[in-house]
Amino acid sequence: MSTSPDTVDSEETLPSLSQHAVRVFGERGVAPEGVVRGDTLAAEVPVALVFNGVSHAVMMATPQDLEAFALGFALSEGILDTAADCRGIEVRAIDATDAGLPEGMPGVEVQLEISTRSFERLKDRRRSLAGRTGCGVCGVESFAGLDLTPQRVPRRDWIERVDLATVLRAFAALPARQVLNAEAGAIHAAAWATVDGELTDVMEDVGRHNALDKLLGKLARAGRLGEPGFVLMSSRGSHELVRKCARLGIAAMATISAPTSMGVRMAELSGLRFWGLCRAPRGVLYADGLSRPSSASTASATASMP
User: Fold this and answer.
1) Does an H or E element contain 241, and which?
2) Which residues lie closer than 8 Å to 284 by C-beta, 6 or more apart?
3) 135 is a catalytic site residue
4) Which part of the chain has CATH 3.10.20.10?
5) Which of 135, 138, 245, 278 is catalytic?
6) pLDDT digit string (tens) for 147-168?
7) What CATH superfamily is the domain 159-304?
8) By the number of CB atoms within 10 A of the CB, which of 79, 154, 260, 299 ranks highest?
């Protein structure tokens, strides 16, 4: 299966959901020995990202929208400068035996053909990256290898329109668009909303970083990274989510759960507007996207719906 960065994602190579027979205990009216029922679980498979024939990372991910995921990862990790640096993407399922994995645990390989400039840069700074759900710095050998230098987001004249009412309007529309999570739970969502709070795109994955990369990849393939709007995350706000957004010029992000202190500091240094704990009628503005960073931590501002 082959695609260029601007084509539509093809069907997933492996199912994103699976059915299992389970025994349920403790429910009212259920016998002490329990009752057997069918349960839907989210798929989590190893996805190898291979650049010009060289395997760079293996991430645990939901096997859906993998072309967008691979492109978003490559852009948000600084492997590519633009989507045009990716000349082609091919996705194929790998049998568990062929992949050297336990029986019943197949994998997926995503092959990306990238520009010579991008590949040479990747080789210069390549390190071992053992990706896990929610882990973005495994394999780093020194503080310098963390790559925490903030990338300043250009000032947007519409940024103050991303206020509490707008953020909560977008979050209110999110559950109905989380199709996989409605079936299986345990799946994060990354979404894109306009400055009016209209939800336009939702991507899902067992990993919050993966979901964001899928969203960024989808936007990049459509040439939409520069349009006014903001990212919503059904997760906490970690520094890596902020860094990925800032690197691609995303000026605002909102998360349903709390941020980490490093996430807030990264937003301050990047000039990214950062809402957290967005649960109606309340939200917390941790970084306004207007202030210049200072050496001291910026005080959080809490806002409530009128």
Assistant:
1) helix 239-247
2) 275, 276, 277, 278, 300, 301, 302, 303
3) yes
4) 2-15+44-146
5) 135
6) 678 889 999 999 999 999 999 9
7) Cytidine Deaminase, domain 2 (3.40.140.10)
8) 79
